[in-house]
């Protein structure tokens, strides 16, 4: 037993030692190096894994470059452990490849050793710098200052960062066209700049070829891009006046007229900001003129916007200046030093250089004297008149003068606008008087003011008109009596006195209007009174002795001056317990749902009456209809159905159109007193119940009785309706002789084509026998019973063949 225990301990010790030894070997990591893009030949040996083993082992390799991407790059010789390379690797895609090396025992193929292997890829200069774009196109202003940043080009190199292979610089290889006024240069960052002055007239476009060159030790790689620089025309040429067109004359007071058009020329690009002219006027302090640019021709169009007065001068002297929308800029190269920026001479509004002299032109505008309208000394005048003033009352006088010196000075006065037609004016003196009675309460009067427009018209050619406004204040008089605001009143009946408000209005103002005095005219003592009776609203008090009914009261309403009116007030007294007022009580309305309900109820009552008439027209007792059961099993007869050319037999009724006595089956008259609700036992029990219980019981019994009657009516309808339908169908059917002969229609495309053999018509020989059609089964007997003539039906009955028909 002791020896067995020692043996187990020895085995465990050996096993643990092997495990620890194997675990240590698993942690071993080896590394190899190789260059990307190796030219071969392939395969070539990368190295051999040195492994001291007491056993014969086989070698295996897994991981990146073997069975993972990039696949099939490496393989290992299974006996020697030497690693071979089968193809080149791209550094830009894989910088390190990680693999697993395994040594397996040849006896049982268990793993003896596992190693981690790293293969480091060395970069070579196999990638040139690449620009983000193959073509750059930019635009710069002609007035850009030298040393200004134009644009930045960018390139990148995929070789290993920080090595000479990925380091590069920029260079301008060529410029087209080469001009003496501009030189381009580029910095290490790819930023483009220029020296000198752009001149659009010299070169409007430059094409630059820019290269990026790396610093590879073995070989240098490069790429290029094209930069197109468009020079946008700046304003380095001032516009120059070349002439003018137009009469240079304008009539006084005339506006919107253009007496002159000024012409200029500009050497900058057509329709650019540097070419479009912008004009200004000097010497027009009162703002009579404006000048605008014709966008098509660049001309300056002078227009009168405020009428000129001949009396202030027959001529107007103006000075017109012109410049461009873009500010003027001038740049000239003076010298070109070898380093730094060039020496240039710049002139513009911001540089403080020499003063820019914009072109100007003096023009003279002649003012022509024309007929001036008469002028009122006061254009807006006030006047007043009482509204009860008699016709012909003087209101006001207006006065006008004609300022013309050379034309006619005779004029007359006229009414320009008189909304109500109340006024007239003396054509020579300007005196305004009334020709109708004025009314302060008229709709033409606003805030007690009536507006009148008068005119003074001269006899010139054409005649001219001056205008003045007269505000006439109408003084109120007591020419209106108070008006009662209502002529109908509704009062709810109550045990005690009730008060209702009545009100009045007066079109006149204070002191000719309210507050008013209200009085009741007639013998109303002990029935009606007013409390209060003074004010704009009075209280009409109904005494408790006034009962329901319609009453006619006379109400007298007087204003503060005693002017009054008497009005009839119809008063309705009623009980308001049902409706809130007498009108709703006397004139009930129905909603749409109620109207629909009444219509449906009417139709239901009509149907009940019709059924009742039918049921009373029949005898009280009916006999059952004898039926004969068919021999054998009843087969379905729904294979064939009646066609449109078949008559429906009139089985449910007789030939005279009356309902067959045996067609309806019913019981005795329906007795609702024999129902389960209404029986002797239930009635006797009601006497011992409360009033509420008996009321609920009778209500439920009433609903049950209605339901029983509905079922009874439905039964009658289902038994009577099929017979009526059969009668109606028969009345519309025609006899076989009356049916029109069917003639097939030949369509145009049928023509006279040859007969197709497989579509030939079926021919029946003359000696054919039809005996086999005598016995076709119950399905065809059903069809025959529907389509056979009346005589065949009688014959069928003699053979005691009964056909079952479904009701329609």
UniProtKB/TrEMBL annotation:
Instruction: Identify the main location.
Output: membrane
Keyword Acyltransferase attached:
no
Extract the PROSITE patterns matched here.
CADHERIN_1, CADHERIN_2
Annotated segments matching region Disordered: 633-662
Q: Which residues form the signal peptide?
A: 1-16
| GO annotations of cellular component type | adherens junction; catenin complex; cytoplasm
**Membrane topology type, per the record?**
Single-pass type I membrane protein
Q: Which Pfam families match?
A: Cadherin
Its transmembrane ranges are: 592-616
Keywords for this protein: Calcium, Cell adhesion, Cell membrane, Cytoplasm, Glycoprotein, Membrane, Metal-binding, Repeat, Signal, Transmembrane, Transmembrane helix
Tell me what this protein is called. Answer: Cadherin 27
Q: Which organism is it from?
A: Cyprinodon variegatus (Sheepshead minnow)
At the highest ranks, the source species' classification is: Eukaryota, Metazoa, Chordata, Craniata, Vertebrata
């Amino acid at each position: 037993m002791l020896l067995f225990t020692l043996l187990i301990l020895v085995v465990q010790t050996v096993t643990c030692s092997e495990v620890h030894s194997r675990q240590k070997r698993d942690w071993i990591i080896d590394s190899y190096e190789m260059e990307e893009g190796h030219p071969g030949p392939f395969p070539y040996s990368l190295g051999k894994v040195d492994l001291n083993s007491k056993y014969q082992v086989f070698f295996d390799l897994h991981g990146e470059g073997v069975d993972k991407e990039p696949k099939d790059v490496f393989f290992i010789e299974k006996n020697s452990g030497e690693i071979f390379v089968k193809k080149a690797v791209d550094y830009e895609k894989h910088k390190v490849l990680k693999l697993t090396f395994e040594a397996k025992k040849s006896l049982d193929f268990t793993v003896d050793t596992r190693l981690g292997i790293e293969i480091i890829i060395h970069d070579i200069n196999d990638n040139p710098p690449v620009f983000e774009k193959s073509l750059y196109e930019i635009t710069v202003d002609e007035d850009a200052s030298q040393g200004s940043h134009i644009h930045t080009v960018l390139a990148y190199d995929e070789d290993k960062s920080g090595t000479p292979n990925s380091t590069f610089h920029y260079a301008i290889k060529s410029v087209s066209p080469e001009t003496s006024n501009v030189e381009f240069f580029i910095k290490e960052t790819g930023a483009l700049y220029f020296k000198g002055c752009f001149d659009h007239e010299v070169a409007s476009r430059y094409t630059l070829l820019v290269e990026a060159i790396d610093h590879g030790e073995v070989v240098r790689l490069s790429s290029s891009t094209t930069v197109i620089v468009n020079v946008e025309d700046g304003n380095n040429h001032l516009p120059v006046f070349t002439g003018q067109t137009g009469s240079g004359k304008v009539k006084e007071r005339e506006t919107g007229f253009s007496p002159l058009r000024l012409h200029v020329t500009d050497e900058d690009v057509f329709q650019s900001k540097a070419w479009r002219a912008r004009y200004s006027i000097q010497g027009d302090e009162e703002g009579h003129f404006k000048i605008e640019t014709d966008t098509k021709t660049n001309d300056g169009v002078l227009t009168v916007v405020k009428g000129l007065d001949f009396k202030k001068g027959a001529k107007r002297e103006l000075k017109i200046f012109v410049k461009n929308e873009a500010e003027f800029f001038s740049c000239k190269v003076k010298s070109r030093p070898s380093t730094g920026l060039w020496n240039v001479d710049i002139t513009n509004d911001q540089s403080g250089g020499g003063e820019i002299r914009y072109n100007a032109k003096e023009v003279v505008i002649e003012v022509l004297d024309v007929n001036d309208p008469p002028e009122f000394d006061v254009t807006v005048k006030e006047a007043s008149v009482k509204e009860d003033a008699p016709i012909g009352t003087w209101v006001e006088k207006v006065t006008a003068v004609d300022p013309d010196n050379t034309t006619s000075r005779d004029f007359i006065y006229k009414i320009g606008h008189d909304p109500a037609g109340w006024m007239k004016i003396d054509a020579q003196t300007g005196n305004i008087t009334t020709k109708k009675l004025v009314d302060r309460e008229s709709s033409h009067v606003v805030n007690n003011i009536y507006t009148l427009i008068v005119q003074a018209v001269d006899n010139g050619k054409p005649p001219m008109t001056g205008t003045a406004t007269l505000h006439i204040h109408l003084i109120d008089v007591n020419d209106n009596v108070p008006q009662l605001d209502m002529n109908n009143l509704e009062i709810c009946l109550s045990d005690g006195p009730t008060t209702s408000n009545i009100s009045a209005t007066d079109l006149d103002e204070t002191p000719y209007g309210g507050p008013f005095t209200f009085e009741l005219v007639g013998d109303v003592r002990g029935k009606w009174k007013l409390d209060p009776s003074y004010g704009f609203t009075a209280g009409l008090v109904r005494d408790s002795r006034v009962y329901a009914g319609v009453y006619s009261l006379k109400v007298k309403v007087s204003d503060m001056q005693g002017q009054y009116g008497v009005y009839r007030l119809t008063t309705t007294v009623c009980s308001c317990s049902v409706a809130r007022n007498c009108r709703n009580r006397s004139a009930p309305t129905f909603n749409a749902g109620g109207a629909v309900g009444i219509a449906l109820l009417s139709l239901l009552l009509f149907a009940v009456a019709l059924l009742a008439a039918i049921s009373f027209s029949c005898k009280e007792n009916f006999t059952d209809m004898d039926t004969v059961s068919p021999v054998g099993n009843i087969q379905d007869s729904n294979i064939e159905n009646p066609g449109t050319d078949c008559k429906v037999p009139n089985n449910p009724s007789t030939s005279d159109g009356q309902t067959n006595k045996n067609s309806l089956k019913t019981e005795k008259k329906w007795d609702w007193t024999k129902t389960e609700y209404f029986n002797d036992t239930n009635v006797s029990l009601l006497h011992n119940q409360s009033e509420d219980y008996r009321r609920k019981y009778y209500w439920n019994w009433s609903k049950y009785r209605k339901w029983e009657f509905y079922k009874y009516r439905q039964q009658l309808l289902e038994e009577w309706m099929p017979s009526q339908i059969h009668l109606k169908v028969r009345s519309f059917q025609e006899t076989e002789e009356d049916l029109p002969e069917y003639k097939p229609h030949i369509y145009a495309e049928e023509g006279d084509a040859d007969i197709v053999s497989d579509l030939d018509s079926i021919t029946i020989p003359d000696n054919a026998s039809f005996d086999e059609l005598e016995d076709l089964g119950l399905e065809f007997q059903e069809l025959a019973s529907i389509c056979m003539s009346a005589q065949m039906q009688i014959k069928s009955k003699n053979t005691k063949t009964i056909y079952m028909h479904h009701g329609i």
